[in-house]
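Table S2 (text version). Query chain:
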Amino acid sequence: MAASTLCSTVVQSSSGSGPVSSAGSWGTTHAMVLADAGNDVVVHARRKEIADAINTRHENPDYLPGTPLLPSLKATSDPAVALAEADVAVISIPAQTLRANLTGWAPHIGADTLVVSLMKGVETSTGLRMSEVITQVTEVPPARVAVLSGPNLARESAARQPAAPVIAAPDEKTAEQLQEASQTGYFRPYTNTDGQVFGADPLTFSGLAGVGDLVATCSSPLS
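Corresponding C-alpha cell output:
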C-alpha cells in the first residue's frame, strides 16, 4: 500500500501508494510509523528545505530533531507528486486551514484512495468535523474516509514507545486495511466503526478513544 501525508507528508506502502500531508511533528511521526510498518512513504513538506533534509539526512530537523527516519520515507514539496497513485492519503494540518488546502489537493486524490484524518477539532465556520469537511470538499465517499485518534502522544510515538490508537471508519474493511498498514511492534491500532452523529455508541466513550485519550491528554506532560 502506498500512503501520503498532506500538509507536509505523503506515504506510500508496499501494497499500494499513498500520501501523508504535513511535515509537522505529528504528520512526520505518523509517516515514520507507516515506514516502520513496511510501507514506502512520501511526505509533503511545504518548505523545500525540510523535504531536502528528510531525503538526504533522513531526519526532520525542525519538528523531530534527532529522530531517525527510514530511507523508505521520502519527501516532496509538490502535493501533486505526493498524491500521485496514492492508495492512502493521510492528512495532518491545522483544522481551520483544511478546507482551503483540500480545495487544491482534491483533483489529485485518486478515485480509490483512502483518506485518513489525524486532525482534531471542528471547522468553526460550519461546525463540521474534519472527516465531514474531507467528504464535502473532495467528494470522497464516507466509506473511504477514516480518523485516527488517541490515546497517543507524538513525542512518545516518535520515540517508538508503545501506543494503542484507534482507527475509526464507517466501513469496517477500510479500518482494517489501515490497521494492517500502520501496525508495528510499538504502534498497535484498534478499529472502530462508531460514527453516528448525535447518536454514538455510549461504549465508545469508555474505550481507548474516549476515556483512554482523555487520561493521556490530562496526565501526560507531553500533551
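Notes on Table S2: The two ends are 31 Å apart (CA to CA). The CA atoms of residues 5 and 20 lie 1 Å apart.
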